[in-house]
Amino acid sequence: MRSLAISALVALLLAGCTAPSSPEPRWLAHAGCGTACESPVNSTLAVLEAMGHGVDGIELDVQLSADGVLIAFHPDRLEVSTNGTGLVNAWVWADLRRLSLADRPEVRLARVEDLMRLDSAGNLQWVLDIKLFAAGDWVPYLDRFAEALRALETNSAAIGRVRIECRDLEFLTRVQRSAPHWELGLVATDPIKALGEARGRGIPWVVLPMDRTERNVVQAAHDLGLRVSTFGASTKGELREAWALGVDEVQLDDPGVLPVR
To answer: Is the distance from CB of 186 to CB of 221 less than 8 angstroms?
Structure first.
């Protein structure tokens, strides 16, 4: 837990004057370290760079390999940013691990569990943003993905430190059934619809872009017993704005704007 002195320092550096009246949100690095970092997103280098900035947690984009391994990768197709082709879900991990980023040949694809092990002290919160791109039948693919997350749940050290988020409400419902201890978040662009769907399905978090996150939406979510995460913030001004909105968490595109803890 961050000390009062560190919280005061964060407030001073972000605000430049008095801190917002809302409680300080949790600061997470988006996609490993965010698009403004030097390290490639969703990589080992990105996670280590973000940890150096003293973030409270890390968000990763997550896909499923053909043999049920959770891979940190965002694009729908490998050729977008690697020397591979096709969907992640069409490859087994033994072959995926040999691929490298097209513009950074020294950087390889990473398993989610390996990235989480970098946090040897167990201090970070982890948000796994599930990207659904299936090679093969859709329903069995969803079931295999949910099972892979359930297997990750057997790591007792991860319980209480991981949230699963996704845009697909039906997938979140599957995870809810197969891995009931995971905290879940619904990613959405329509705040009002998201609040109703999350509340109706018992999903405790809504995840909204900064430009769709308003004070009245955050208050309505809190009134319903929901928590709000927002993404798309990078500058100190945007971080201060998110804090003032009363959100519970901010996924940063540039954790370098935070002071080193």
So the answer is: no
